Amino acid sequence: MKTNGGRRRIRALCWSQRAWRGAGMAQKKYLQAKLTQFLREDRIQLWKPPYTDENKKVGLALKDLAKKYSDKLECCENEVEKIIEEIRCKAIERGTGNENYRTTGIATIEVFLPPRLKKDRKNLLETRLLITGRELRSKIAETFGFQENYIKIVINKKQLQLGKTLEEQGVAHNVKAMVLELKQSEEDVRKNFQLEEEEQNEAELKEKQIQRTKRGLEILAQRAAETVVDPEMTPYLDIANQTGRSIRIPASERKALMLAMGYHEKGRAFLKRKEYGIALPCLLDADKYFCECCRELLDTVDNYAVLQLDIVWCYFRLEQLECLDDAEKKLNLAQKCFKNCYGENHQRLVHIKGNCGKEKVLFLRLYLLQGIRNYHSGNDVEACEYLNKARQLLKELYIDPSKVDNLLQLGFTAQEARLGLRACDGNVDHAATHITNRREELAQIRKEEKEKKRRRLENIRSLKGMGYSTHAAQQALHAASGNLDEALKILLSNPQMWWLNDSNPETDNRQESPSQENIDQLVYMGFDALVAEAALRVFRGNVQLAAQTLAHNGGSLPPDLPLSPEDSLSPPATSPSDSAGTSSASTDEDMETEAVNEILEDIPEHEEDYLDSTLEDEEMIIAEYLSYVENMKSATKKN
User: Fold this and answer.
1) What range(s) does the UBA domain occupy (predicted)?
2) Cα-based angle 552, 555, 558 (whole degrees, multiple of 5)
3) CA 481 to CA 487: how far, in whole Å?
């Protein structure tokens, strides 16, 4: 990425023009938070006399209150009076809405519109809670002028489900609803224009795309859980620790964790493209799946903490931070998770990686968001403290562009250069050595992991060759920590595991009665004829399994082994000669391949991609908010 002076100056100019527009809004939010805080401390109820008369008009006492608070804040009295009046009007609106809800059951929803709309972005909408999510979406689209199929509604940090009623989804009176407007490509716009009479089909197409993303993630997660795919031929996801080595995750947790991390990566891909409205639903889905994992598991990986930062960052970039009621909770949770994962003062991280320079990027983002949240809450002292901590980290993480160029000339990527320089405190020679060593270490780890996967696949094939199903082989190898001999002992000691079949026609070798030839083989080995016949019935004529089980159990079948395998066999196999079925299977396979490839496109090659940032956005936002904090008094007086 180029960082020459011309480009940086252009970006700074664009930000400066935007900052003039944003400064007034940010400072107004600060004053609103500060004045709300004063009103609570003084227990002032603006909707009652002497601040509101019997006709709900403003009372004369409000001007005296504005004078008192403007002196306290050392800012413009007219500005304070205007904001207090806005707070009073909203309080009256809320009271009227509460009374209306008690008498009629009609709830009020506070709708937050996208930033591009110049009108008041907070609007009230009345509705009954028995309508469906689809009906609410239609109502919002009609009221505020959106295309219904190109918006998503987020309430209580969850996407609104179209098929369920608001009541079923926990939507209550006075809830906040955020409208996400999905961007359309030129092709989408053209299609929408040509097919405007087929909006329902368009909506179904969007839903199919969402389902395809989910399906792709589920396929990859299932492949990782089964560990029977060929690592050379079939893409799959794996979970690694900070060093890049695979982590053993309990089967009950693995799929949820895979889906959580998959949705997170998808959301991060949209964040990089600054498509925040599309990123947020993916991030919220990731949060949902992470919540299905146990607390102990989340403390061993930093992904959950990073997700909390990404969610708050996304709300901030959408200029809808006030919709996230628990922003402080999420940031505190991220800080706690980092501490649990990295250790006090990062000592665990330093022990594992040898440094903590790259992870400082996460703490910079954390302190910045904490500063922004405190500023919007009227806590200027805390805001200044966090913003200054973020600025100090920014100085420590600054990278000289010429050093990046030096590493690029050595054949490293820009991403490797940034990560290496931050890990080595800006020393080019040390960074080059660090990157080279890391490349070699990762190559060795990947080689070892691939070999481990290959050996496990061979062991599964060996057990399958003995007549056991893939599922049974997997379970036995898992219990035996990958040892083939121990796995075979487990299977022989638990012959009922043989019935853990794969519902695969090729493994369904049932037969009504054993052949006399097979019975004679077992009798020749020294087993009783009746026992031999029973064993062959249990194992569907598999002489090898029957012989191994009888030998392991002293010539008889285990007493707890059911003798009616038909009760637990796979359903009859569909004839493979059915040409229509073959065509359908081929189509399904193509669709699955497409779904998987869409996911893989957004999975970064570098395992530390989430730690790589130019910090250009953070640099400008830190400067912007520090200027708000430091110049708030003088700026308000000028107004």
Assistant:
1) 398-438, 448-494, 513-553
2) 65
3) 8
Q: Given the structure tokens 């926990």, which residue do they identify?
A: 170
**181 three-class SS:** strand
Percent of the chain clearing pLDDT 90 (strictly above): 26
pLDDT in tens, 300-353: 778 899 999 999 999 999 988 888 778 889 999 999 988 888 887 777 777 767
E strands in 162-222: 176-181
Cα dihedral 535/538/541/547 (nearest 10): -40
Report whether pLDDT(199) > 50: no
Q: Tell me, what's the pLDDT at 562?
A: 58
In angstroms, rounded to a whole number, what is the distance separating the alpha carbons of residues 306 and 359? 11
The number of residues making up the chain comes to: 639
Cα–Cα nearest to 393, from 629, 617, 618: 618
pLDDT at 607: 79
Q: What is the pLDDT of residues 527-564, one digit of tens each?
A: 888 888 888 887 778 887 788 888 877 888 877 665 55
Three-state DSSP at 124 gives strand
Model confidence band, residue 490 (pLDDT cutoffs 50, 70, 90): confident
Average pLDDT over residues 9-27: 43
Give the residue among 223, 224, 227, 221 at the shortest CA–CA distance from 453.
227
Q: Which of 175-189, 247-261, 585-599 has the lowest mean pLDDT?
A: 585-599
Q: Distance from CA of residue 343 to its chain's centroid?
A: 24
Domain ranges (residues) in the chain: 14-100, 105-181, 202-343, 514-558
Torsion of CA 292, 294, 297, 302, to 10 degrees: 50
What does the pLDDT look like over 146-156, one tens digit per residue? 888 888 899 98
Q: Which H/E stretch holds residue 111?
A: strand 107-112
> Residue type for 548, please?
Q
d(CA 324, CA 311): 9
Q: Which pLDDT belongs to residue 334?
A: 92
Q: Please give the Cα distance from 82 to 90 (Å, whole number).
A: 13
Strands 107-112 and 158-159 turn out to be unpaired
Residue showing tokens 């809450």: 377
Inter-residue contact 104 to 127 (CB < 8 Å): no
Closest alpha carbon to 298 in 242, 347, 337:
337
Q: Which residues of 182-208 are buried (b: 16+ CB within 10 A; e: fewer)?
A: beeeeeeeeebeeeeeeeeebeeeeee
**pLDDT at 229 (0 to 100):** 47
Residue type, 76: C
105-181 CATH choice from 3.40.50.2300, 3.10.20.90, 3.40.190.170, 3.40.50.720: 3.10.20.90
The residue among 243, 239, 211, 216 whose CA lies nearest residue 227 is 239
CB 536 within 8 A of CB 565: no
